[in-house]
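stuck on this one:
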Amino acid sequence: MSYRVKMILPVVGMFLLWCAVVAAITGEGREIKQALPPSLDDLAAVKLVEVKDAGGQIVLGGSFTMARKTNGDIEGEATLAATGVDADAAGKAEVEVSTRNGNVDKELEVEVSKLAPGTTFNLFIDGQQAAVITTNQRGAAELEMTNRPSD
């Protein structure tokens, strides 16, 4: 092994360790991916998104604003506002429905932050429970649901 390789290996190792530590501290890399439930078959028509605590209280909520793109894709966004149960909680939700080569791709993404760390919350879309999310040690979570979860 050359001298240069011997000198570079520890530097690369330290960099990878640093990346792992940063990911653990910031909560990055903990995105949950799962299949879109049958209750969200018509993702282009969703209106309301809510995050509820174990007691059923709404912690975050928002309404989708939908837009049809020139290529026919439908995209929607919702800013999740705190309801007072957790005053500094925040989040956002996005939906996308696109058709390519006859295949319809549907995706729902939800990000929450500033919630209680290590706590389980229920995600509701238009009054129907769609998923369960658990926050990381920083009180954040990311969820991606799609009709093609293996991609």
About this structure: The beta strands are 32-35, 48-52, 58-63, 65-68, 74-82, 90-100, 103-113, 120-125, 128-134, 141-146.
